[in-house]
Amino acid sequence: MTQPIISVRGVQHRYDRQTILKDIKFDIVEGAFVGLVGPNGSGKTTLIKLLLGIEKLQKGQITAFGHPIQKFKNKGRISYVSQKANSFNRGFPATVKEVVSIGIVSKENKQTKENLVYNALKQVNMESYIDRNIGDLSGGQQQRVFIARAIVSNPKLLILDEPTVGVDSENVEHFYRLLSKLNKELGITLVLVSHDIGAITTYVTDLLCLNKTIHYHGDPGDFENMPDEQRSKLYGHRIHTITHDH
Amino acid sequence: MIEAFINYTLLRNTLYAGLLVGLIAPLLGVFIVVRRQSMIADGLSHVTLAGLAFGLFMQKKYTLLMFTPFHTGILFSVIGALIIENLRDVYKAFQEIAIPIILSVGVGLSIVFIALADGINTDIYSYLFGSVAAISNQDLTLILWISILVIAFILTFYKRLFALSFDDEFARVSGVKAKTLNFFFILVTALVVSASIRIVGVLLVSALMTLPVATSMRVSNSFKQTIVYSIIYGEVAVVIGLIAGYYFEIPAGGTIVITSALLLGLTLLLKKVQLVLTIKKDDEHAA
Lengths: 246, 287
Ligand SMILES: Nc1ncnc2c1ncn2[C@@H]1O[C@H](COP(=O)(O)OP(=O)(O)O)[C@@H](O)[C@H]1O
Ligand SMILES: [Mg+2]
What we know:
The complex is a heterodimer of chains A (246) and B (287).
Chain A: E1 4-14, E2 19-29, E3 33-37, H1 44-52, E4 59-64, E5 67-68, E6 78-81, H2 96-101, H3 110-123, H4 139-151, E7 157-161, H5 169-185, E8 189-194, E9 206-211, E10 213-218, H6 220-224, H7 228-235
Parallel strand pairs in A: 3-8, 3-9, 6-7, 7-8
Antiparallel strand pairs in A: 1-2, 1-4, 4-5, 9-10
Helix pairs in contact in A: 3-4
Chain B: H1 2-7, H2 9-34, H3 38-61, H4 69-90, H5 98-116, H6 122-129, H7 137-166, H8 168-173, H9 178-200, H10 205-219, H11 223-248, H12 252-286
Helix pairs in contact in B: 2-7, 2-9, 2-10, 2-11, 3-4, 3-5, 3-6, 3-9, 3-10, 4-9, 6-9, 7-9, 10-11, 10-12, 11-12
């Protein structure tokens, strides 16, 4: 078994009045494609903000690449596509190139930067939009630009918080295939957050069901084969079997 | 009338100060506009007014003083910035509440100090509406230093400021120290506001920081372009506004902002015409 790149033990978190997360324990191994699912308000965003170190750890331990999260220096190893990325200020005057450049963490010369940006955009098939204004793109195209920004510094781990909200179902399928490609071809470990347990079980290698605490962690296939009632209980919300025709 | 500006040292100083302010106000303004913080400039300018009034009062009371109202204005503006940062920390969920608090306290203090300094006089009038009145060598030097500091700050932190403005969470994940950078940003804003008041006045500082940016955003594609065009629009408005203000004996704030608004109107109109023409051309192609 390889050393996990993320390890979470006994994590608890509360905002002013309520406890949002309790007794959270799981590992993420290198190369995994983890689906983190749970109903709205189940604490998914809070949990990943803890992993990213932008929310302060209150109780328990989180280690990232062997370092306690409080002392971890990221240097581009963990990258992020935030939930807010869908709701950014559309009038923001910036080109696709400028947006993707934000993700470059090291000091590079101009030519190297241009190459990095171009290659990242190529990975998401958006290289021909490099000089376009970010606000002129469709929601799905913007989402791919944000992925390019997140992978431009070759991260080991990429965390995406509900990236498909507002993307139509046909593009969602494209999007998941793109993530699979990043996972398999570039070897980026992925954590995909979703409140919709539907399609993602086809793509992920590990399923994590969160609702205040982890209710299920394991193979997505095993989860799919359980009776509806048991799955609903683990997911923490009603689930109906949706038949996929593929 | 242009000769007047070139031939008289003090007027020349005003023109130089105007050119500096026409550069730094829109430069910083771009970041303020995209971060939706236009109100901060208004809050700080009213605190600066309190500082200016305090300086006038002190001058009246103790005639020989080391510092001028301009100095106390800068001081109050910086203190106001620190208080805004602090209030934002206290009211995390209602950060915008800091502005009305600081603005109203600024106006309140201004009224008190103006009354203590024996009421409205011409100085207060020019602080409110701006002026083409002479700027001393000392004041010009101070505005020059402030400008150098602001430009150095933006050049050094350009990438981090851009990242933070676009998406603060992503910036923080990639290692931008958001809290520290925000702190310095608001301090720099305080300096720009107090320097700009010398030219456009308390009531119109935020206009000089936002109008050129609003115009520029209509015609530019990239963020860098937005900055360059904002500065150009700002400089054009300041130069035309100062000359017109001198010629017609109108406070510079009025003439500068009206020039700026005309530029905005003209740009919007040209954009509209351009759009209509392209649609027409496309139709002809289709036909
Ligand atoms: N900054 C905050 N302060 C107070 N409560 C919060 C904050 N952020 C989230 N919450 C609350 O914590 C709960 C979990 O939120 P979140 O982690 O965003 O869930 P999810 O991403 O699964 O929808 C929700 O009830 C939400 O209202
Ligand atoms: Mg969420």
